Amino acid sequence: MSVDVAHIRPARAKDAPALSAAYEEAWRNAYQGIIPHLSLERMIARRGPRWWESTLRKRAPLLVLDFGGDAAGYVTFGRCRLGRAPFQGEIFELYLHPTYQGLGLGAKLFEGARIRLAEMRLKGLLVWALADNEAACGFYLSLGGKPTAEGAESFGDTSLRKIAFAWR
């Protein structure tokens, strides 16, 4: 008999506190030293439990990594914001609490989103990552993503380069 300690499921209202904590820790871990400190702190402060409660009530496409009953990370996805073929689907955010990183669980979240995008009949997938976030870029490359476009994201007076990874 096997026990699945980690699985992907739709988010529930009671996940708000855990998602808030996962977001905060994941963002600090991923972006400290990349995004200017004040901008990073403001972004984290805006995404507290109330924000998550509101988002979960809206029923946006959001899957969580359930690890032993707790939401340890999440992925948001939908129609590609670029609106051009062949990339109809997009993963907007994929974050894991740092405790759960490096165990293959991010790939499990990624695959869960790909399945849902396919169910939505959205072909091709795009994900953006800050170029200086070497862990994220390496993660998407390891999943077979191909760098396909570049852009910039502004944080206060700082502009950071971002890379789009694509899957057909």
UniProtKB/TrEMBL annotation:
The keyword Transferase appears for this protein: yes
Chain ranges of the N-acetyltransferase domain: 6-168
Molecular function terms from GO: acyltransferase activity, transferring groups other than amino-acyl groups
Superkingdom, taxonomy of origin: Bacteria
Presence of keyword Transferase: yes
Keywords, alphabetical: Acyltransferase, Transferase
SUPFAM superfamilies for the chain: Acyl-CoA N-acyltransferases (Nat) (SSF55729)
InterPro entries, sorted: Acyl_CoA_acyltransferase, Bact_Acetyltransf, GNAT_dom
The protein's name: GCN5 family acetyltransferase
